[in-house]
Amino acid sequence: MASRGGPRAAGTDGSDFQHRERVASHYQMSVALKSEIKKLIYAHVGIWLLLLAQMCVGHLKLLPHDQVAMPYQWEYPYLLSILPSLLGLLSFPRNNISYLVLSMISTGLFSVAPLIYGAMEMFPMAQQLYRHGKAYRFIFGFSAVSVMYLVVVVAAQVHGWQLYYSKKLLDSWFTSTQEKKKK
């Protein structure tokens, strides 16, 4: 093409190399999806730490039970939901498909399933609160069932988006794997 300070090749302005410097779309998508999943994992860790704090305060009796209620049964298996997030993070550096698949499966088992069970477990208490206005468990003056339903809704959205982006990331990795095999 052209030397550093010397003449350029005839018929070019030196910008015809830019098409070769584009990053393939599946690599761009992989980077973007990894970033989104990391944000969701950080949100999940925040939710997880709040539930862990509530459980510790409830069991260690650091505050009276009228301020922080004892945890519901679904919160105990939900504590295992940190494992899928760690597997997801471990899959990122080398695009490890098997870790990402394990992360997706265990997200359903350890994250989504306890949330569904929690929604069903708390439904009679929510119904009683709605119909009669009576709550028996509180978290800092708020009805515990209302606070925990809010946690369930936010956590379900976080895990739903995490699964969606993980599936798209998996598809992106399969695309790059298939292109490598064709070469």
UniProtKB/TrEMBL annotation:
Protein location: Endoplasmic reticulum membrane
Membrane topology, record value: Multi-pass membrane protein
Q: Where are the transmembrane segments?
A: 40-62, 99-118, 138-158
Q: Which family does it belong to?
A: Belongs to the jagunal family.
Does the keyword section mention tRNA processing? no
A GO cellular component annotation here is:
endoplasmic reticulum membrane
Gene Ontology biological process: endoplasmic reticulum organization; granulocyte colony-stimulating factor signaling pathway; vesicle-mediated transport
Matching entries from InterPro entries are given as: Jagunal (IPR009787)
Protein's gene: Jagn1
Can the keyword Membrane be found in this entry's annotation?
yes
Q: Which UniProt keywords apply?
A: Endoplasmic reticulum, Membrane, Transmembrane, Transmembrane helix
Against PANTHER family, the record matches this protein to:
PROTEIN JAGUNAL HOMOLOG 1
Please give the name of this protein.
Answer: Protein jagunal homolog 1
Which source organism does the UniProt entry give? Steatornis caripensis (Oilbird)
